[in-house]
């Protein structure tokens, strides 16, 4: 076989595996060393790449070669130069120091408020605004930051982007550090990059020490590990180690565990085994409180009418509220402009969502009614049958957490006063805490509404 023929076939084979994460990872550690007659010698950087490439792809590659030649022999050898380097130069990429010093260069951040464990000391419970949309998540977070509780392990927080999940992770971390626990904040991207680098340099042991020699692991955006099965497997074993040692795991995600497609079943099972809660859209009152609190941090003294205008029109995420305030800060500090509703309306358009409040609430009411085999008139009417009353309260609660309307505004949508709305929301919130099956059903309903509304 000519060299060019094999290289062409090998490139075709690589192209056929372009969606295969395992192949993309391993192929970077495999090189063509020699092609002679019907014999091909591939060179692997380490045992991991050699054994896994042979187990997963050798037979398929041989079948590909049979298209051009009879009985091809493919041999995979170790890269002796790489092996000798690892023996002669044992200094690892991952610093094998005691647990307090395990967070080396790949974990460094630009912010001076971050320590070696990646925890931002500025993000605490003191500056985290609580409301009905996140009350349960905050309650559990505060509890586990005070003391260990197996019921909250793992603690799984899910919700759309920009709603404060990451802030809550750092708040938990800072609370645990006050109890002198060793913590580490990471996210899926950092975890994956660390893991790939460990494999390439044959330093898996140092990688595992880094992620295991701690008391609390706070793992952000786990959904970004989709399709990365090898990294998922490594996380599973870390998970098992933590559970066996009685250590705490906290995850954030953009969806509940059972909706994590392209994840291994056993990892999903572990993620579902503790406490999982959702964070919804903050209400008008909470958005107003966030604006006041964050504005004070920035030294902004905004007129009340401007704050109310922003709270009414920036409804989607907490991140957008912060972004709008930072832009206002630039205008006041650098340009010396006074802030008015007119100016905010003109300059902050990118933060304003397309809100259709009555239609959104009506959609929620209709979806909840249909889910419980009721008519819309039942939800909006006066009948107090147990099933109708429960559906009505669920619609109230979802409207409270998924729309920017105040309780007074929602009262008008449900033909009731604001006290009735508050009572209904509190009942559903309490049921979530005591009935896991009901909490799962409610989360599923909210997810469907986010897709269809």
TrEMBL record:
Residues 360-428 form the Chromosomal replication initiator DnaA C-terminal domain. This is Chromosomal replication initiator protein DnaA. Keywords: ATP-binding, Cytoplasm, DNA replication, DNA-binding, Lipid-binding, Nucleotide-binding. It is found in: Cytoplasm. Plays an essential role in the initiation and regulation of chromosomal replication. ATP-DnaA binds to the origin of replication (oriC) to initiate formation of the DNA replication initiation complex once per cell cycle. Binds the DnaA box (a 9 base pair repeat at the origin) and separates the double-stranded (ds)DNA. Forms a right-handed helical filament on oriC DNA; dsDNA binds to the exterior of the filament while single-stranded (ss)DNA is stabiized in the filament's interior. Oligomerizes as a right-handed, spiral filament on DNA at oriC. Residues 1-86 are annotated as: Domain I, interacts with DnaA modulators. It comes from Candidatus Haliotispira prima. ATP binds at residues 162, 164-166. Residues 151-283 form the AAA+ ATPase domain. InterPro entries: AAA+_ATPase (IPR003593), Chromosome_initiator_DnaA (IPR001957), Chromosome_initiator_DnaA-like (IPR020591), Chromosome_initiator_DnaA_CS (IPR018312), DnaA_C (IPR013159), DnaA_dom (IPR013317), P-loop_NTPase (IPR027417), Trp_repressor/repl_initiator (IPR010921).
């Amino acid at each position: 076989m000519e060299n060019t023929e094999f290289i062409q076939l090998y490139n075709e084979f690589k192209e056929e595996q372009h969606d295969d994460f395992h192949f993309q990872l391993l192929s970077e550690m495999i090189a063509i060393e020699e092609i002679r007659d019907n014999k091909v010698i591939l060179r692997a950087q380490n045992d991991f790449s050699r054994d896994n490439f042979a187990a997963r792809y050798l037979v398929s590659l041989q079948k590909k070669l049979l298209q051009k030649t009879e009985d091809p022999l493919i041999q995979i050898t170790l890269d002796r130069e790489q092996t000798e380097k690892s023996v002669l130069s044992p200094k690892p990429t991952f610093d094998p120091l005691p647990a307090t010093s395990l967070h080396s260069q790949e974990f460094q951040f630009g912010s001076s408020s971050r320590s070696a464990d990646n925890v931002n000391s500025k993000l605490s419970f003191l500056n985290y605004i609580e409301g009905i949309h996140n009350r349960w998540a905050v309650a559990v977070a505060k509890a586990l930051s005070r003391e260990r509780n197996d019921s909250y392990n793992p603690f799984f927080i899910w919700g759309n982007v920009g709603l404060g999940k990451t802030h809550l992770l750092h708040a938990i971390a800072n609370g645990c550090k006050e109890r002198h626990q060793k913590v580490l904040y990471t996210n899926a991207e950092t975890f994956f990059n660390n893991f790939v680098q460990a494999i390439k340099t044959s330093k898996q042991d140092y990688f595992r020490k880094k992620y295991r020699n701690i008391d609390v692991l706070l793992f952000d955006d786990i959904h970004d590990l989709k399709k990365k099965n090898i990294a998922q497997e490594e996380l599973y074993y870390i998970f098992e180690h933590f559970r066996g040692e009685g250590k705490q795991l906290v995850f954030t995600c953009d969806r509940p565990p059972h909706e994590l497609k392209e994840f291994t079943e056993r990892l999903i099972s572990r993620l579902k085994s503790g406490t999982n809660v959702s964070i919804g859209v903050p209400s008008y009152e909470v958005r107003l409180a966030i604006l006041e609190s964050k504005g004070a941090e920035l030294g902004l003294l905004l007129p009340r009418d401007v704050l109310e205008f922003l709270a009414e029109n920036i409804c989607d995420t907490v991140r957008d509220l912060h972004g709008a305030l930072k832009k206002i800060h630039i205008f006041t500090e650098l340009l010396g402009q006074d802030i008015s509703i007119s100016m905010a309306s003109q300059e902050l358009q990118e933060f304003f969502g397309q809100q259709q409040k009555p239609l959104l609430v009506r959609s929620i009411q209709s979806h909840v009614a249909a889910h419980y085999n009721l008519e819309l008139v039942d939800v909006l009417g006066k009948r107090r049958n147990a099933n109708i009353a429960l559906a009505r309260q669920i619609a109230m609660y979802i409207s409270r957490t998924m729309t920017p309307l105040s309780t007074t505004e929602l009262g008008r949508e449900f033909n009731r006063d604001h006290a009735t709305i508050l009572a209904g929301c509190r009942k559903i919130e309490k049921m979530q805490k005591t009935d896991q099956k009901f909490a799962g059903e409610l989360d599923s309903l909210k997810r469907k509404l986010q897709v269809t509304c």
